[in-house]
Amino acid sequence: MIISIDNKNLARYVYKQICNFFPDENNHDVANIEKCVDLALDRLDYCFKHINVAYYSNKNKESLFNHLNGDHYAHFLYFLSNSIWHEIEDEKLYSKIFLLNKALHGLDLFYSREMPDIFLLVHPIGTIIGKASLSNYLTIYQGCTIGHSDSNNINVPKIGERVTLFSNSSLLGKCRIGKNVVIGANSYLIGTSITDDKIVTGQYPNTKISSNKSQKRFFY
């Protein structure tokens, strides 16, 4: 991966940001961030090398990470918060990195959410990704909501591979979404099953389902 800032300086960059955004009396060890920056960048590299979108790879198909590209950095902060959550017992640290992502990008993606290995966030301002079963090659645009529809967090969406959620769309409750499905802009489903290769438009329960014949791909 070609990166705009080396691992050690990236760790210090994140450390300075959380100190500025959250100036409480909790002192965090920057070494813990350094340790998990390596893990996060490895995960980011694997994710980005599968993305067939400008600015994510070069002509040689080497993945690119620019810490000043908001979409890149939103991905990275999720991977970092999740990696720290798995590796280090410092709840305040991974909570702050989650909140940093929320403050910088308007993205509510909790540190304990398990995203697929390969996904794409497209300027995800206002997007909320709650509890769900998610699959690879997932694309999520701005203003989207994925999550449960009950107080017990039982009825959650299950989403197949190569699903795209366009802007301001939502999947709530026990939705079962097949492969290669497109959820159109401003559309939403509640507890609905959609088979493979479909396009969904409109709002539940008055949704329109049509065939998805497009071969457009955001991924290799």
Task: Write up what this structure looks like.
The protein is an alpha/beta fold. The protein folds into two domains: 2-105, no CATH class; 119-211, UDP N-Acetylglucosamine Acyltransferase, domain 1 (3 Solenoid), CATH 2.160.10.10. Helices cover 30% and strands 20% of the residues. It contains four helices and 16 strands. It has helices at 7-21, 30-48, 70-87, 91-105, and strands spanning 2-3, 64-65, 108-109, 119-121, 128-129, 138-140, 145-147, 158-159, 164-165, 170-172, 176-177, 182-183, 188-190, 193-194, 198-203, 206-211. Strands 4-6-9-12-15-16 form a six-stranded mixed sheet. β15 and β16 (206-211) form a beta hairpin. The chain is globular and about 50 Å long. 37% of the residues are buried. The model has no long low-confidence stretch (mean pLDDT 96).
Instruction: Tell me the strand percentage band.
Output: 15-25%
Broad structural category: alpha/beta
Shape: globular
Order of helices and strands: EHHEHHEEEEEEEEEEEEEE
Nearest-angstrom radius of gyration? 18 Å
What is the rounded distance between the termini? Answer: 17 Å
Q: Describe the biggest sheet? A: 6 strands, mixed
Low-confidence stretches: none
How many beta strands in the DSSP annotation?
16
Q: What's the helix count?
A: 4
Q: In which order are the strands of the major sheet placed?
A: 4-6-9-12-15-16
Count the domains. Answer: 2
List the helices and strands and how they pair.
Blueprint lengths: L1 E2 L3 H15 L8 H19 L15 E2 L4 H18 L3 H15 L2 E2 L9 E3 L6 E2 L8 E3 L4 E3 L10 E2 L4 E2 L4 E3 L3 E2 L4 E2 L4 E3 L2 E2 L3 E6 L2 E6 L9
Parallel strand pairs: 1-2, 3-5, 4-6, 5-7, 6-9, 7-10, 8-11, 9-12, 10-13, 11-14, 12-15
Antiparallel strand pairs: 15-16
Helix pairs in contact: 1-2, 2-3, 3-4
